[in-house]
Amino acid sequence: MYEHIVLLKLGPNVTIDEQEEAVKYAHAFKDTIPGIVDLSAGINVSEEVEHKQGYTLGIRVTFTNRQACRDYIQHPLHQNLLQRIGPLVEGIVVVDYPFA
Fold it and tell me: Residue 97: which residues within 8 A CB-CB, separation 6 or more?
């Protein structure tokens, strides 16, 4: 198994509706893109304000293996999401790791 975690820092002018739309779009990947075992995405509601560092959205995708993650990155639906929200993103953190 292979975990892919993404934290997005969206610009200050991004509306809650735009954030919710991005989360909704990400959720659609689960039943559409091959190799995805599990997926969660949501708006950061942490009360640990001192640790949020402006990161607004979180996405976690579990894949069958590393190659499935590589294929996902190139998949047209994922590329479409990047084009849609790319201009809104001010920062991004990605963490990938294999696990048993």
Answer: 2, 3
Query: Is 48 in a helix, a strand, or coil?
Result: coil
Q: List, in order, residues 6 or more apart from 42 with CB less than 8 Å away.
A: 23, 57, 58
What's the pTM?
0.93
19, 10 Cβ separation under 8 angstroms: yes
- The answer for residues whose C-beta is within 8 angstroms of residue 92's C-beta and 6 or more apart is 6, 7, 8, 9
Q: Which residues contact 98 (CB under 8 A, 6 or more apart)?
A: 1, 2, 3, 65, 66
CATH number of the domain where residue 14 is located: 3.30.70.100
Q: To which residue do tokens 């949501």 refer? A: 42
Which domain, by its residues, includes 66? 2-98
- How many structural domains compose the chain? 1
Q: What is the pLDDT of residues 77-95, one digit of tens each?
A: 999 999 999 999 999 999 9
